[in-house]
Model the fold of this input.
Amino acid sequence: MTAPWSRNLQRDRCGVLTVEIEHVDVATLEMLEQQGVDCQPKASTIRIIQDKYLQKVHFSQHAIPLPEFMQIEDLEGAKRAGDLFGYPLMIKSKRLAYDGRGNAVANSVEELSSAVTALGGFDRGLYVEKWAPFVKELAVIVARERDDSILCYPVVETIHRENICHIVKAPANVTWEIRNRATDVAYKAVSSLEGAGVFAVELFLTGDGQILLNEVAPRPHNSGHHTIESCYTSQYEQHLRAVAGLPLGDPSMKSPAAIMYNILGEDEGESGFVLAHQLIRRALSIPRATVHWYDKPEMRKQRKMGHVTIVGSSLGEVEEQLKAMLKEESSSYPSAVTPHVGIIMGSDSDLPVMKDAARILDMFAVPYEVKIVSAHRTPEVMFSYASSAWQRGIQVIIAGAGGAAHLPGMVAALTPLPVIGVPVRASALDGLDSLLSIVQMPRGVPVATVAINNATNAGLLAVRMLGIKDVDLLARMSQYQEDTKNDVLKKAEKLENDGWESYLNP
Ligand SMILES: Nc1cncn1[C@@H]1O[C@H](COP(=O)(O)O)[C@@H](O)[C@H]1O
Done:
C-alpha cells in the first residue's frame, strides 16, 4: 500500500530527517506547528478523511457501530432528519469541524434554521446525527505502520465543555470489558482506512454498555497529549515512526494514571494571559505536573493555549491534584505521596497487634494509612473503603480482625487488590477462631493469611509485593534479610563463645 502522508524521506547533512507530508488536515498543521515543526504541506487531501460524512458512510459500510446519520441539503431535509431521529439533533459540518467548530445542536424544529446558520449554511456541506445517549466519551489513539500493523494506546476518557475537549483521564475509569470493546471498535475503524501514522478514534459509551464510533482524526490528537509524559512512546514520536516506516514504540503507560487539562483562553487579550499564567504558576507547584504552553501570539476566549499533564499512582490522586490546581486561592497541593498500603482493623483493640505492620512500613518508608473498619459494626464503611481503595492508589490492603474475623475476606471480595489477613487473638478461643475465619476462604477470593498476631509478617509481605515494581524497595528487603541473618549469626557466635549459662544470665 502507499503511505498517504509521506513518500519522500530525506536526511540532510546534519542527519535531520525530513518527512514530506502530502495529506494533512488543518488541525494536524496546527498541532505540528505547536510542536515547533516547520510545515509546508502540499495541497492534496484524502476525501475519505477530510469529508466526515463520507468517512461515516465508509465506517457504516464496514459494519462499525456508530450513531445513525444522514446528509442534509436544505431545511426540508433537516426537518425530515428531525422527524426520523428526534431532538436534540446534532448537526455537523462535513469539513473543518474540530475543537468545537462545525458542530451545532438543535433542540427543537424551531432551532434548526439558526443552527444551520451558525454552521455557515447548507453550502458548507452539512449532515445530521442522531443524538447518542452517551454516559461517557472515550478515545483511543491507534498507531498504524506502513506495513499495516496496528498498535493501540490505552483507552482514555475525554470530558468536553461546550464541545471542546477539557480534561482527559488515562486510563478511562471503565471496566476491562468496556476497555476491550472500545479498543476493538477503534482497531476496526483504523483497519478500515488507509494510511500510516497515528489516528485518534473518538467513541461514545452508552448506558447499556455499547461503544459507538464518533469520529476518527487521522493525526496526533488532544486525547493523546498525555502520552508525552505517561507512555513509553508519545503519540508524536509514534506518528513519525509510523510515517517514516520505523518500528513502532511501546504505547503502554509507564505511570499508573495521568490527567490532562487543556488551558483554554478565559478572556481576550492581556487579561486572558494573566489568568493563564496564574494557572501555570499553580500547576508548576504540583510535583509531577508538566506544563505545555503553545506560545500562540493571540489570546482568545476558549482557544487552546496549552495544556497541563499530571501523572501519578492513581486516578484518584491526579484528580485531587487537578482539583486543587483549579482552585484559584489554593496555595498547597495534596502531596504526591498517597498511601500505598491500607492497614485496617475491626476495632481499636486490635491496634496493639496491628501497629507492628505500621512499624515495618515505616522502616521501609512505604506510605500507608491506618483505619478502623468493622465488617459487622460499620459494613457500609467497609464497602466504600474496599471498593474505592484501588482508585485511590492503595496497592495492598492489610486487614486484621479477631473473633468472627470477616473483614479481610469481605474486603478481598470487593477489591481486585491483594489482601493480607492478620488473625488477631481477641477471644476466649485464643485466635484460632479468627485464623480459621480468615484462612478458610472460598475458591476465587484469596486472602494471604499470616500467623496469629503476626502483623510484622503482614507488613513484610506487603513490602515484598510492592517490591515487584520498585527495585529500591526490593534491594532494601534483601538488606533486611541479610541483617536478620547477621543478627542470628551473631547470637549463635555469642552462644558458642559464652556457653548457654552465661548467655542466659549475662
Ligand atoms: N470481628 C469483628 C467485627 N468487628 C470487630 N471485630 C473484632 O472483634 C474483636 C473485639 O472487638 P472489640 O474489642 O471492639 O469488642 C476485635 O478483634 C475486632 O477485630
